[in-house]
Amino acid sequence: MSLWKHYSSRHPIPLSIALALFGVGFLIGGGILLLVATTPVPDIASFSSRQIDQSTKIYDRTGQVLLYDYNRDAKRNVVPLASISPHTIHATIAIEDSSFYEHGGIRFTSILRAILIDALGGALSQGGSTITQQVVKNELLTNKKSITRKINEWMLAIKMEQAYSKDQILETYLNSIPYGGTLYGIEAAAGTYFGKPAKDLSLAQAAYLAAMIQAPSYYSPYGAHKTELAARKDLVLERMHTLGFIDAAAYADARAETVSFAPTGQTSIIVAPHFVFYILSQLKEKYGSPALMSGLKVITTLDADLEVKAESIINQYALENVKKFKATNASLVALDPQSGQILAMVGSRNFFDKEIDGQYNATLASRQPGSAMKPFIYALALLRGYTRDTVVFDVPTQFSTACQPSDVTNNIPPCYAPENYDGNFRGPMTFETALAQSINIPAIKALYLVGIQNAVAFAKSFGLATLGDPNQYGLTLVLGGGEVHLLDLTGAYATFANEGVRNTPTGILEVSDASGAVLDGYTPQQSRVLPATIANDVSAMLSDAPARLPEYPLNSPLSFSGYDVAVKTGTTNDTRDAWIIGYTPSIAIGVWAGNNDNSAMVKSVAGFIAAPMWHEVMAYALSKYPKTYFNEPSTILGSVPQMLQGNWRIPDQNGSFTPHSLLYWTDKNSPQGSPSANPAVDPQFAYWEYGIAAWYASHPELFSNPQIFVPISFTQPEPTLPL
């Protein structure tokens, strides 16, 4: 006996309920039939021949400088289904609609899922649409999500299947779908990306194009998501193999095939190309691809003058860095801290440079920030009650509790005894001097004081959303163990410039349609993530040029005479990434230098690799934007513990002087309160104390003379600049 029969025999449904259910089902079925009968079907022949007759234009912030005329170079070549390779047809069906030749226009499982999501209050799922539905949606309907639009889509799909053959619908689909930029249809895509007609595409090439259909801007072979595109191409091939379109040998060969995409040329006038395509991607996501053919006018946030100047400077220095440091690329972002508006976005040394894949937008790439993460750790420490003058000891220290405190030179896992960038150790330092000189040991200790979980959550509140699960990081997080985007990192620093108020980076001021009606406008997206007093303290620490001595001279590329400019560099240990982020209250500018393939540069530091180009762009920006100053930092009260006042020469309870760590003199969870009654319970206490005691024993002159604060090292490396 079936489960249903078993249940119904024990729990018979009352006749009245059965009749009611039948009546509801009859009404729903009748309603669907009525909608199908009365829904008109447009002439399918008009789809593939539809012309793009209105151009979307993108302007700078003045509305006067045309950055790009999107549709001027639109490409669409209509071909019959017989002129499209079977590989392409099968790849498209496999990934987009595997039951295309079986269903009647819609899949009822997708409809039930959409109804369920709507009933639960969620947005209607766009996944799972049949090819027929996609033809209807892209050619006849808007991208706006609503139950009415979805019902119209279902009804039109059913009617279309009744009026036209499967091959007609598939031919229309392949000739009309966007493949990125101004490419529409498989023939234009095959010609642009591979230099061949659609009938000659190889299996791997066909799989790549099918992989792009879901999100052509995101999966662009010239964008920042090439790895994701390759993974989706493999998914297409896997689906083709599973469905029997290809055998195991063809599947393996196609996965292993190396596919080269033709470089795109400069076919039209375009200003700020990386920024333009960043904006186009946002417009497509919000309004749908068809809207870009409807005559939109887009006023962006871009300062065209600053953009052109920045592009020239980045190109000049990036080309010089090829010879000096084997660094082939560089990128830049400039933001208005008070609004989050993007003023400049330089994604590479040259968008049209074929040697380095110049169309790759490095401002959106995930990279390790090196010591550029340190300000967020110190900011959190200040928020927890520490001060700019808090003393921490830069001495050889073993941080792993799996090793002995005396293992201060053992950095072989599981031990962790890191060094500073130059191999030197400087003894007692304040938070301010340690940050200004980018010293590693104090920063690692600061991270321990605030906690890794807290630090990751805090950094994410600044917009560094690409940081992963806190459990994947150790104390190396403060040295740049996570990955961030230059755009996000510059926006995070801009939060300090804006006294703790974060503005989400934005590139659009206004969007209007062909009739002039405004569709969308700039709306500030602000959130306070840090008290103004703490933000001002961080700005004071990062703009303190004397505190950088002797690592940086007062006239270094980090300084500007007569201006308040806060700045921080960052270099990964393997010299794969070099960063410099700086700001005033009026502008924030971030620069990254390195190689698109993530290969290492010649071992150096950001002070040499990235600072010169950053300095020149910042100098130009200072000349054109209002001269502004940071507000005064907070006053450090005499009531706080002496170690927080900058005094580490404190007599102990016996009246004798023996240097101790912060863990001895303060409670790390309440640094301005009473010290811990038993500091030895802290797992790091013995390790920090040992390092200080060893340093004290080997450098008595440093502790007997409070005027001596010179770096003392175990090795004497060549002079270099800090990370």
Question: What can be said about this structure in brief?
Answer:
With 723 residues, this protein is of the alpha+beta class. Helices cover 39% and strands 10% of the residues.
Notes on the protein architecture:
It is built from 25 helices and 18 strands. Helix content is 39%, strand content 10%. β1 (57-59) and β2 form a beta hairpin. The model is unreliable at 1-11, 47-53, 121-127 and 706-723 (pLDDT under 50). Strands 2-1-5-12-13 form a 5-stranded mixed β-sheet, with helices on one face. A 5-stranded antiparallel β-sheet has the order 7-6-17-16-15, with helices on both faces. A two-stranded parallel sheet has the order 3-4. With 723 residues, it is of the alpha+beta class. The protein is elongated. It has 4 domains: 3-32; 39-48 and 72-256, Penicillin binding protein transpeptidase fold (Orthogonal Bundle), CATH 1.10.3810.10; 301-367 and 485-508 and 524-633, DD-peptidase/beta-lactamase superfamily (Beta-lactamase, 3-Layer(aba) Sandwich); 372-480 and 635-723, no CATH class. The N and C termini lie far apart (75 Å). The relative contact order is 0.09.
List keywords for this structure.
single chain, alpha+beta, Penicillin binding protein transpeptidase fold, Beta-lactamase, 4 domains, five-stranded mixed β-sheet, five-stranded antiparallel β-sheet, elongated, disordered C terminus
